[in-house]
Write a structure and sequence with these properties.
The protein is of the alpha/beta class. 42% of the residues lie in helices and 21% in strands. The strands form 2 sheets. Strands 3, 4, 5, 6, 7 and 8 form a 6-stranded mixed beta sheet that branches. A two-stranded antiparallel ribbon has the order 1-2.
Length: 215
């Protein structure tokens, strides 16, 4: 902060300094640890155990800016978008448990192997994972046999058209809406997928601190 003639104004630090701090926290897992601490406080405040026992997984495709290299972006034919996918796991309240960012060309079921492995590695207490119809086939069998993590696929209602609320799946869709309230997460600007993952962490931190401040 700089003071001139009794008036104060904020002076932003050099961009290189800001990036160096962000990258250092990213490398050390600092952003993830803050998410974990805030999520634990919210779960306890809401009368739940600190350790989650269930998760919901899903993915979201976002367009990539010109700064994103070809090696970490791809074309999602279903969404007709050139960019990246955010694969997330949340608890039953929609609070972030794990995030993996891949090129948008990666199929959900393929990226889910990484996501579920990360989820199991961080939470031994998880006993069930819900997912939508984009995760069929061998994934649930693999998750149960290899990770001891049963999966329940929630499919669309037969014959239904347009949008309808699906049990459990709506929770993670709401989490994506929370993330998209943050400008930096509407589009991918990062040259590294792990840095995009930490932008999701930062967006989640902002969401949770606001909720805690209201108590």
């Amino acid at each position: 902060m700089v003071s001139r003639g009794g008036n104060c104004r904020w002076s932003s630090p050099p961009a290189g300094t800001v990036y160096a701090v962000f990258a250092r926290w990213s490398h050390s897992g600092g952003w993830q640890r803050i998410v974990d601490a805030l999520r634990d406080r919210l779960r306890v405040r809401d009368g739940r155990d600190r350790c989650p026992t269930a998760a919901i997984i899903d993915s979201q495709t976002v367009p990539a800016a010109d700064t994103v290299p070809r090696s970490s972006r791809g074309w999602d034919g279903g969404k007709r978008t050139n960019g990246v996918k955010r694969h997330v796991a949340v608890d039953v309240n929609g609070l972030l448990l794990a995030v993996v960012v891949t090129a948008a060309s990666i199929q959900d079921r393929d990226a889910a192997h990484r996501l579920l492995t990360a989820l199991r590695g961080r939470f031994s207490t998880i006993r069930l994972a819900w997912a939508d119809g984009g995760y069929p086939g061998r994934l649930p069998v693999w998750a149960k046999d290899v990770l001891a993590l049963p999966m329940q696929i929630i499919k669309r209602i037969p014959g239904s058209t347009g949008f309808h609320v699906r049990p459990r799946v709506w929770v993670v869709e709401r989490s994506f809406a929370w993330i998209n309230k943050h400008r930096r997460c509407v589009r991918d600007y990062e040259t590294r997928p792990d840095h995009h993952e930490d932008m999701v962490h930062i967006a989640t931190i902002a969401t949770m601190t606001r909720r805690l401040a209201r108590t």
